[in-house]
Amino acid sequence: MKTKKYAVINANSAEWTKRAFDALNGQCCLIVNKSDNGIYTRLRPNEKLLRLGGFQLGLNLENKHFSEQNAIYVDVKSEKCPDNVSIVMGHLRKAKPKSIVLVEATDQNTQKDIPAMCSALDYTLIAQLESESIFSFLIEK
């Protein structure tokens, strides 16, 4: 099984406002870029974040504010719908509960098909990103 890195926010209650700490501590994010000082991440705000308001989709985090974890990596960049979604579903079925799966695709239909699949099968779409014609999805089973 292939793995790829994603980030988990480790908010510091002494440095972050209570609102930001409560909303973001423990959130999983896609890693967009990394430097010596930290990372730029991408997350999809959940209802809690949207209710609190004021949060952007992208966050710059210093090294002390995140940890990197391994996700199950599913590369369906060479696949078209419906095969790519079927492959992702197969990996999610085999994954243990609470597993994190990182999917990369090139078929534009995945932008609507993967979120629809997550909704229909009660998986959590944590983050979604398009970069250089690659669509990335971070999903929690």
From TrEMBL:
SUPFAM superfamilies (UniProt xref): SirA-like
All copies of domain UPF0033, residue ranges: 73-141
Gene3D superfamilies linked to this entry: TusA-like domain
InterPro entries found in the cross-reference section: TusA-like (IPR001455), TusA-like_sf (IPR036868)
A Pfam family the protein falls into: TusA
Record's protein name: UPF0033 domain-containing protein
Species of origin: Photobacterium kishitanii
